[in-house]
Amino acid sequence: MNVCFAPCPVVFDLDGTLIDSAPDIHASVNAVLRLRGVRPLTLDQVRGFIGGGVDLLWRRVIGATALPVEAHRDLVASFMTRYHEATGLTRLYPNAVEALGILADRGYPLGLCTNKPMAPTRAVLEHFGIAGLFGVVIGGDSLPQRKPDPAPLRAAFLALGADPETPRGLYVGDSEFDEECARNAGIPFLLYTRGYRKLPVDRMLHRASFDDFARLPLLVEEAAAVG
């Protein structure tokens, strides 16, 4: 029997789950490309590159352009100077904040586990005034491992008071990285279908899926009751 030291923690991904940050990431990528004299990428192209962290983002950008592979480190550094405070084009998904508030009011400990680096993660949480809703925030540079490795997600649940050996809780995300991370950690996964996933919903393992955050509190209640 699973032991739960905190009442069913719920941990969220960020980009493509709570926020649509693709326009800001797109603008930051193209600002770097312009400096290099490279044709800008489309928003859809960049959106398709999001999910595995900044290093993977730029490996994909390099693969889609004429940029040399050996420029990767400098490109990432140039990107990060712009990305740290990039919030102007980012939007919360409809009803996301309301759903977070309902879950918090019902006593669910909330956390965040993202491959986004901590500095831009903190910037966007402060920008939208939601930093205080999360008992723990694990960014892409918080640990040596990144999703889909289960270590960041396990660290989030541990910080929220879950049993470190058999953590009970829920992970809410939008992508293949999130689904694989939840599976690797042995955590039930709730799939938000309006994010950045590339696979069809029926090819992803999930406890439930939803396209409107207004449905999330009920889905959490149902999933928590199942255990």
List keywords for this structure.
DNA polymerase, domain 1, alpha/beta, two-stranded antiparallel ribbon, six-stranded parallel β-sheet, Rossmann fold, 9 helices, 8 strands, globular, 227 residues
Overall description:
It comes from Paracoccus aminovorans. One of its GO terms (biological process) is carbohydrate metabolic process. Mg(2+) binds at residues 13, 15, 174. The chain is of the alpha/beta class and 227 residues long. It has 2 domains: 10-20 and 91-226, Rossmann fold; 22-83, Putative phosphatase, domain 2 (DNA polymerase, domain 1). It has helices at 22-35, 43-49, 54-64, 72-83, 96-105, 118-128, 151-159, 176-185, 216-226; strands at 10-12, 19-20, 91-92, 110-113, 136-138, 170-173, 189-192, 208-210. The strands form 2 sheets. A 6-stranded parallel beta sheet has the order 5-4-1-6-7-8, sandwiched between helices. A two-stranded antiparallel ribbon has the order 2-3. Helix 1 (22-35) crosses helix 4 (72-83). The chain is globular and about 55 Å long. The termini are close together. 42% of the residues are buried. Residues 1-5 have low confidence and may be disordered.
